Amino acid sequence: MRPKLVLFGDSITEGSFMEGGWGAALANQFSRTADVVLRGYSGYNTRWARLVVERAMDGVCVGGASPKAVTVFFGANDACLPDRGGASQHVPILEYQDNLRSICSFLKEQWPTTIIILITPPPIDEDGRLKNPYGNDNSGLPERTNEFAGAYAKACIALAKESDLPVIDIWSKMQSFPGWEKSFLSDGLHFTALGNRILFEEVVLKLKEKGISLETIPIDLPLFSDIDTNDPHKSLGK
Amino acid sequence: MRPKLVLFGDSITEGSFMEGGWGAALANQFSRTADVVLRGYSGYNTRWARLVVERAMDGVCVGGASPKAVTVFFGANDACLPDRGGASQHVPILEYQDNLRSICSFLKEQWPTTIIILITPPPIDEDGRLKNPYGNDNSGLPERTNEFAGAYAKACIALAKESDLPVIDIWSKMQSFPGWEKSFLSDGLHFTALGNRILFEEVVLKLKEKGISLETIPIDLPLFSDIDTNDPHKSLGK
Description:
Chain A is an alpha/beta fold.
């Protein structure tokens, strides 16, 4: 049975199989070795994710099996400012951290051997957000700021440290490239194909650090080049 | 537990999560409702697929569950000419048909309620194949021809009729568009993003004809817009 890689998150996860998406790229990377399972819930914050994690994971693995890894990628919605157009999605930072803790504890309890990878919220391009007005706010101010998202990113990293979990700091990673605002973010928040590529590479790297790679997961059936075409039963017989 | 859509085939299936791929587009289409499971085996013909189908499907569904649908998309390799560079992959047409019959019987027996969708081999752009020499053949002739692939497509359609299975005639469909050779095929055989789009649309249409669509598969958790954000327990409580 093929191992599973589960992607749990908000719209940046739900949309990860769009053209150029990081989820699709992962599925392509592991096309012969692992199943990528999509559990993305657009608009969700950690308060809601915490309420549904058990049902979201229901049936992902059965018969006592565990996924190889689960990415937990929330916070972009929690980090909506409490007094702007995204207020209904806002979650205070300490609650965000506690919700993440609860989600990871649930996963750890259910699947003790599974690698849980936290991903921080992405950086915010406020100019991009202003061009994509959100909610019913006519203040002319963005509903998210990069600074506020950064505080949630730090809280996510602190929780990862506390819980001894691997974390991808996509907030910092993206900002280490000049021009990140437009090259990685399509609307100041969601990812362009290039932004998706950055996250894909970070996830592949983190999985590899944790022992999950094309080198370590056995292929389920022989490559064409390894089949004895004169005697396929020899290569492919049970 | 989310329903599953399984993609079983050769390289055009294995590569279906590359950028613009038809598998990724399906996973995106059903991102909140169904899991797309990739079982693509580059280079495989039906002779080898028949030998491995049981193992390829092992663990895809457990505990008595069945996939909603399985696409069976082979023949591009069977239809290599027997005396050219792809000879080791060639399978005679009657054996191709018999292998397909065996694969579908296995699936039907294991999962009587699953919709099995046959897909014919794609058309061949011989000029494209000549520009991508294959195997150890220096004849200057392509290892596949469109006419030969068409015979396999007809055999596939005949089997679908005999077995009362839905079939996507991608060989004919693509050729109904002018300029199909270059716009749908990147190397005379594999699909461009536009070619992937055509197949994606055909699969969505065929699934819909068989009662599988966004309208008929229930969403597992509420959309953000349906959550009472003042009382999330009401919308999201168990």
